[in-house]
Amino acid sequence: MAIGNCNIYSHGKREMTINEFKRWLKKLDADKDGRISREELADAVRVTGGWFARLKAKRGVRSVDSNGNGYIDESEFKNLVEFAEKHLGVRIFQF
Ligand SMILES: [Ca+2]
C-alpha cells in the first residue's frame, strides 16, 4: 500500500497534539472512506516500527476496534490514542 511519506517521524518529532494526531490519521485513510480500517492502522505500525512491531501490534489493533467491526470510529478514538502511545512511541497531548 502506497502510504510512503505518512511516516509519523517524518517531521522529526515524537510528540504531537491531538489535532496533529487527527491530521496524521487522515493521511492513513488510504481509500479515503473517512475511517481507519484495521489494515490501515497495521500499515501505519509497519512504516513506523517495522515488521516485528506489526506482528506485535496486530493484537493491539484488535483491541482498539472494541466493537469488532473492522474500523476505528470516533467512539474508539480514545483507544487509538492509547494504542499510538504504546505501540508507535508517540506522546499525544490532549489539549
Ligand atoms: Ca470499530
Task: Please give a structural write-up.
The chain is mainly α. It has one domain: Recoverin, domain 1. The protein has three helices and four strands. The strands form two sheets. Strands 1-4 form a two-stranded parallel ribbon. The chain has a two-stranded antiparallel ribbon with strand order 2-3. Helix 2 crosses helix 3. The N terminus is likely disordered. The chain binds calcium ion. Calcium ion binds next to strand 3. This is EF-hand domain-containing protein.
Report helical residue fraction.
40-55%
Strand content: 5-15%
Largest sheet: 2 strands, parallel
Total of domains = 1
Q: Whole-number average pLDDT? A: 79
What is the C-level CATH assignment?
Answer: Mainly Alpha
* Count of strand segments: 4
Low-confidence stretches: 1-6
Under the CATH scheme, the architecture is Orthogonal Bundle
Which small-molecule ligands are present, each listed once? calcium ion
Helical segment count: 3
Spatially, the strands of the biggest sheet line up as 1-4
What is the overall shape?
Answer: globular
Structural class: mainly alpha
Q: What's the quick description here?
A:
Keywords: Calcium. The chain is mainly alpha-helical.
